[in-house]
Amino acid sequence: MTRSDLAPDTRPRLTGNAPKRRWLVPLLLRLHFYAGLFVGPFIVISALTGAMYALSTPLEKVIYADELTAPVSSEPLPLADQVAAANSYVGPDETLVAVRPAPEPGDTTRVLYDGTDLGESETRAVFIDPATTEVHGDLTTYGTSGALPLRTWIDHFHRSLHLGDIGRHYSELSASWLAVVAVAGIGLWINRARSVRTRRDVIRPRRSGSGRRRTLSWHASGGIVLAVAMLFLSATGITWSQHAGTNVTDLRAALGWTTPAVATDLTAETSAPDEHSHHGASDGDESAAGAGEVDPEMFDHALAIGQEQNIDTGRVEIVPPTSEDTAWVVQEIQRSYPTEVDSVAIDGHSMEVVDRVDFEDYGLMAKLARWGVDIHMGTMFGLVNQVVLALVALSIAAIVVCGYVMWWQRRPTRGGIALGGRAPAPGTLRVAPWWGVALISLVAIGVGIFLPLVGITLIGFLVIDLLRRR
């Protein structure tokens, strides 16, 4: 008799009490792997361009200081004089669409015009010294945030890589998959936390050692720290996307979560448009009056009436009527904390207030949407918000790079040419219970419908996986 004959039999037996193979964690690992491998480059580009956009706001103030600032020499002149000076500068053929009085001493007033040579959500801004009516600049601005050319260029680069509607698919793909990757990563981190000796081992990265385990510790620790930020950026970023953004808008409308807006139609009640779009609140209309047809003194009257109601001094926009049957609008555009976006509509004939909307009247979801968009854009908490956004974006890019490093470190080192790392083992769904397969299928279908690009690419991942297994 040999020693092996005396050794206990440790081979698994196929009995009814045999433990079932795990399937959820391997499935999350496989999803996390393929999403990171193929969508990772889009997430990196989106993160880097997002960091650029976050820092473009303070940079804008430096580059365009001549246009944005004016010496504090005396009390500001009436808006009528400032608008008249801008009208004289641009000529009578331009369409006046809004005026933004100087918010602080030392700032310039923006008089905004529409034009046929401008793009969507763009206006021509003439910068006026409020004390002397001297013209300090003439630039194209973009959206309700009033982005100047540098920030506008970075904004379009972040959203579409300057490729138009086709390019917007990249940002929607990265924003949609960012949440999926984060959720799968959280599940893997929880599983890892159950097997380590101390909780600190799953939060702090390994500083000693080398190889894949050290890279994994940095990837996992950084990912769990950034998980909430990733989910937030994904949820708010999706609202700007083409396909998923439409679904978000429809869902908000169905649940009554839309943002209220003042009614400007003087002949009938109109439904208010959705708030989301940091673009277009000051967009012109083909029926808007030309610069010479709007009485400049009306801007002072409209502002005074608005201030008597609920409009505070500061960042304010005055929008003239687009026709005889529409009202003047005076609205706050202060997006930093505390949010001030109250607005009033004024009948230009009787000078009576016909409608008003206060931010306090917004529903909870409308307020959360407003705050979420402003934090995503870096306007809520000023420079602190912008610096934190840039650091978070760069950190997200770094953990994606760590994922690629792990993939390369896991590559085969023997036999043949190594073209890359190995993927996690397939076959996880084959050992899953029927209810697990049904649940995963329902979730995948729901996500695919609400986030179309996720559904399309998920099918692509499955095809690649099947071909690889064959």
**Could you estimate the helical fraction of the residues in percent?**
40-55%
Structural class: alpha+beta
Write down the overall mean pLDDT.
Answer: 84
Largest sheet: 4 strands, antiparallel
Q: What's the order of the H and E elements?
A: HHHHEEEEHHHHHEEEEHHHH
Ranges where pLDDT stays below 50 over 5 or more residues in a row are 1-20, 269-288, 415-419
Specify the oligomeric state.
Answer: single chain
Shape: elongated
- The span between the termini is 45 Å
Number of helices: 13
* Strand order in the sheet with the most strands: 1-2-3-4
Describe the fold and architecture.
By secondary structure, the chain is of the alpha+beta class. It is 49% helix and 10% strand. It is built from 13 helices and eight strands. The strands form two sheets. A four-stranded antiparallel β-sheet has the order 1-2-3-4. Strands 5-6-7-8 form a four-stranded antiparallel β-sheet, with helices on one face. The longest helix has 40 residues, at 24-63.
Features:
470 residues, alpha+beta, four-stranded antiparallel β-sheet, disordered N terminus
Summed up:
The protein has helices spanning 3-6, 24-63, 65-68, 79-90, 149-160, 164-193, 212-238, 243-255, 297-309, 364-377, 382-409, 434-450, 452-469; strands at 95-100, 109-114, 122-128, 135-142, 316-319, 328-332, 343-346, 353-357. The protein is of the alpha+beta class and 470 residues long.
